[in-house]
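question for whoever is on the cluster today: can someone run the full assembly for these? four chains, 250 residues total. i dont have access anymore since they changed the login thing
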Amino acid sequence: MHLSRRLRNERADIELSDSQFSVLAYLVRTGAHTPNELSVWEHVTPPSMNRTINALEAAGLVARTPDASDGRKVFVTATENGCAVVKETRRRRDAWLHSRLSALTPDERRTLEEATVILRKLVAP
Amino acid sequence: MHLSRRLRNERADIELSDSQFSVLAYLVRTGAHTPNELSVWEHVTPPSMNRTINALEAAGLVARTPDASDGRKVFVTATENGCAVVKETRRRRDAWLHSRLSALTPDERRTLEEATVILRKLVAP
DNA sequence: TGGGGTCATTAGCCAAGCTAATGAGTTAGG
DNA sequence: CCTAACTCATTAGCTTGGCTAATGACCCCA
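^ ran it for u. tokens below:
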């Protein structure tokens, strides 16, 4: 129906920064985390992460819920809408990547695949 | 003498942003350019490039010289000091990279080399 | 010789990082 | 058991490096 159209339009409106998308995708992938955990994961300071969370929350893509067992803590989770944004963005990225990769020979693709393994070793040995 | 020590200290003081270093290195590599040319090369707007040039000029790493044949234009060139900064930074980067690359097998290094060629094709076909 | 275009630059906005400070809540030591 | 120290999240306010709009000098063509 026109719900999917609405979704598209809404997403077109929303422009996420790299760090915002990164946090959102991380939440979708790994579930709820506290702001502190997120700041460590993203290598930014807690206030910076707080700002990122605020933006995502204002856009309705994540929600804060208090931790029942520790009043200081807060859990941040991706909303249904947030999951949808990640899924759709990934779909578009994959489409782009696929169109570029299809211009390569199978041999070239294999070389790239091996390279990613080596690069991973290089950066985090 | 202690001139080299002073150089090091001065360089330690100076913290160049990525875009500043990129412009400086480009000038060292390719000689004088106008601000406009630099902004096109770096994919930023002329005012942004102007700000970058100002910072480099204030640090004594580049100099502006008017174009004799066209009063609107200005040439930006790396100073001797700017060349030294680029050379030293490259030296340190190369040292780091070399230490990481030497942990790889020759086969792995060859794979990486081939991958860079393919990636270049992929990004700018 | 004057009017449209090109260049560098200035002014001022915004996003996203940072440090320092605050306040609520937890925990450990006496 | 209670207080002092710590741990979170959050707020306040700074800095940097992008941006657009505006300005002023200058070139060139008709």
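summary bc i know u wont read the tokens: Residues 17, 19, 44-45, 47-48, 51-52, 55, 70-73 of chain A lie near DNA strand C (CB under 10 Å from a C1'). Residues 11 and 88 of chain A are 9 Å apart (CA to CA).
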